[in-house]
């Protein structure tokens, strides 16, 4: 009976806190609206057979050339690109519970995650059994369960601990392509001016940058774009011309 009530609580929370999530018992789906440009995403469901890109991010809604990377050990991983012809990614990363993805879409589209809610939710309280032990520094991470909330709720449920003074969170608005920075002063979350309470939230299907151990400052990383094929062709042609240029004899 307790297990049934807990499952019902998860579903109710999903329905109340996000219009994009609908669930039946422990199985549900998330409609993720991707905007043109950068999207900080999270998959908060356990999918079958796994949470790899080739399982969770494929289909007619995803544009050819969509790119994806993740933050790991203080750096971005090599960029993965989506091939709409084969429906596969050049690097098949795993977007597991609690992780964050840096996805760049050429177009506005919607993708759907389908799977089971993970084991960390405890009725309407904080997550249980979630102890990721993230090191200090910037982390692109997410809530392992599909519930939206303000930073008072989300920080604990994302990191598995309470914030300390000076730590920050940067949430991303995919519509405006801008960050909102917030800092914890030991008592409450403030905006980046440190003068007003923060109104930032993390939505279902979203990840955010967490500045762990920081002292009221944030440096938000950005992937270095790789040179396009045309640029490489142009560079190669230029080098070829230089090699073929006749030498002059100095008299």
Determine the mean pLDDT.
84
Largest sheet: 5 strands, antiparallel
Strand content: 25-35%
User: In DSSP terms, counting alpha (H) and pi (I) runs of 4 or more, how many helices?
Assistant: 4
| Percentage of residues assigned to helices | 10-25%
The count of DSSP E runs of length 2 or more, i.e. the number of strands, is 18
The poorly predicted ranges are 1-20, 229-251
Anisotropy-based shape: globular
What is the ordering of alpha helices and beta strands?
HEEEEHEEEEEEEEEHEEEEEH
Beginning-to-end CA distance, first to last residue? 98 Å
**Structural class by helix and strand composition:** alpha+beta
Arrangement of strands in the largest sheet = 3-10-5-8-9
Radius of gyration: 22 Å
Keywords for this structure?
disordered N terminus, 18% helix, 5-stranded antiparallel β-sheet, alpha+beta, disordered C terminus, single chain, 251 residues
Could you characterize what this model shows?
The strands form 5 sheets. Strands 3-10-5-8-9 form a 5-stranded antiparallel sheet, with no helix packed on it. Strand 15 (178-184) and strand 16 (189-191) form a beta hairpin. It is globular. It is built from 4 helices and 18 strands. The longest helix has 16 residues, at 2-17. Residues 1-20 and 229-251 have low confidence and may be disordered. The chain has helices spanning 2-17, 53-56, 151-159, 229-244, and strands spanning 21-24, 27-34, 37-41, 45-46, 67-69, 71-72, 75-76, 80-83, 88-89, 101-105, 109-117, 137-141, 149-150, 168-173, 178-184, 189-191, 201-202, 208-212. The N and C termini lie far apart (98 Å). With 251 residues, it is an alpha+beta fold.
């Amino acid at each position: 009976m307790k297990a049934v009530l807990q499952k019902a609580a998860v579903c109710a929370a999903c329905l109340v806190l996000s219009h994009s999530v609908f669930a039946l018992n422990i199985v549900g789906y998330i409609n993720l609206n991707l905007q043109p440009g950068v999207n900080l995403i999270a998959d908060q469901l356990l999918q079958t057979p796994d949470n790899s890109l080739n399982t969770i991010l494929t289909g007619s809604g995803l544009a050819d050339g969509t790119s994806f990377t993740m933050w790991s050990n203080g750096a971005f991983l090599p960029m993965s690109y989506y091939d709409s012809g084969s429906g596969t990614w050049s690097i098949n990363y795993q977007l597991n519970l609690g992780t964050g993805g840096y996805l760049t879409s050429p177009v506005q589209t919607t993708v759907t995650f389908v799977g089971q809610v993970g084991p960390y939710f405890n009725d309407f309280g904080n997550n249980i059994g979630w102890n990721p032990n993230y090191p200090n520094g910037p982390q692109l991470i997410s809530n392992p369960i599909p519930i939206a909330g303000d930073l008072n709720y989300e920080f604990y449920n994302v990191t598995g601990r309470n914030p300390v003074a000076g730590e920050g969170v940067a949430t991303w608005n995919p519509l405006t392509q801008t960050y909102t920075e917030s800092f914890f002063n030991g008592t409450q979350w403030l905006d980046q001016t440190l003068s007003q309470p923060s109104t930032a939230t993390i939505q279902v299907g979203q990840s955010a940058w967490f500045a762990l151990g920081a002292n009221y400052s944030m440096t938000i990383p950005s992937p270095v774009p790789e040179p396009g094929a045309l640029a490489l062709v142009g560079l190669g042609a230029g080098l070829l011309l230089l090699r073929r240029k006749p030498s002059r004899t100095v008299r």
